[in-house]
Amino acid sequence: MKRLFLSLLLLCPALVFATAQYPEKLRIDGKEEHLMTTPLEEFWHAKYPRPDTLTQTSWACWRGYVGTWEIIGNKLCLLQLVRTEIRPKDDSFEEETTSLPLKTYFGTDGPVIAEWFTGVLRVARGPLLAQVNTGYASVYEEDLFLIVERGIVTARRIVKNSTASLTSESDLAWREFGRINPFGAITAALPEEGRSLEKGRWIGLPELEARSAELVKNKTTFEIRGIYMPGILWFPNQSGSCSSIQLEIPEPQPLPDAGVAVEATCVLVEAENGLRLVASELIELPAGFAVQRNTSTEQITNLQPSSTTVSEML
């Protein structure tokens, strides 16, 4: 199991963010809040290459800095960048915090208007409801969402969260991976976008386990989501443990890269060494789509007797 996890770390760069990250700081309405988005990463991509000096300082700060921002007259402005490194001292270690001059990157001491950024900022407020040790996936009592267009805040929304509305911690973690774009920025998603990730006709691992006898007996065709690895479909768990099931793909078809989230159309068969999924189709999921579901899908009508027998697929 440990070997599989280490292999996934190499195959999936997003997995290196599997630790809760230090938030950015945002001054707004006279208060300093926790900003769960990294707008500066968009700047490196859009304007300049990311500086080689901004290396990871700890597992909790992969970006190598913490920025202080402020909303000034509806403009998102960068005020300060600091970098905290841990250095050896005598027989122990000490933290050394340095300020990174904005003039080095922007030609001015600031404030710098974030004209390069268009998207959603998420500000976390209130008590912690669910700790998720991945990126900024932890859930707080309240979220303030700021909609930004080229550095200008155009709208605000406040959303109250509750434990009753939370999905599993593991799924929150894997959604977080999906919100890390190719150049390292963490983006925020509005609540309706998050809910849409759960939609679809697919079943989750708990339901697969609960209904395995029925699915095998009736030769039922269904959809299920997981992480594709050669020969298996992997079901991640945020706590570090995981489950998997054998995956066979008898029909020639383009296969996704290892470590990619997929939705598999398949039947469940009983083999000598356990249960096995036989897939007729694999569809790669867009970034951020949920790959786990704890809720029942009793109202979903996708579970149909297979029109293709298992022997024909094999």
Features:
314 residues, alpha+beta, OB fold (Dihydrolipoamide Acetyltransferase, E2P), 2 domains, five-stranded mixed barrel, 39% strand, elongated, disordered N terminus, disordered C terminus
Explain what the structure shows.
The chain is built from eight helices and 15 strands. The protein has 314 residues and is of the alpha+beta class. It has two domains: 12-197, no CATH class; 200-313, OB fold (Dihydrolipoamide Acetyltransferase, E2P) (Beta Barrel), CATH 2.40.50. Strands 1, 2, 3, 4, 5, 6, 7, 8 and 9 form a nine-stranded mixed sheet that branches. Strands 10-11-12-14-13 form a five-stranded mixed barrel. The longest helix is centred in the first third of the chain and has 10 residues, at 2-11. The model is unreliable at 1-16 and 297-314 (pLDDT under 50).
- β-strand amount: 35-45%
- What share of the residues lie within helices? 10-25%
Q: Please tell me how large the radius of gyration is.
A: 22 Å
* Arithmetic mean pLDDT: 81
Strand elements, count: 15
Distance between the termini: 28 Å
Assign an overall shape.
elongated
Helical stretch count? Answer: 8
- Indicate the structural class: alpha+beta
- In N-to-C order, the SSE pattern is HEEHEEEHEEEEHHHHEEEEEEH
Main sheet: strands, sense, barrel: 9 strands, mixed
User: How many independent structural domains?
Assistant: 2
Low-confidence stretches: 1-16, 297-314
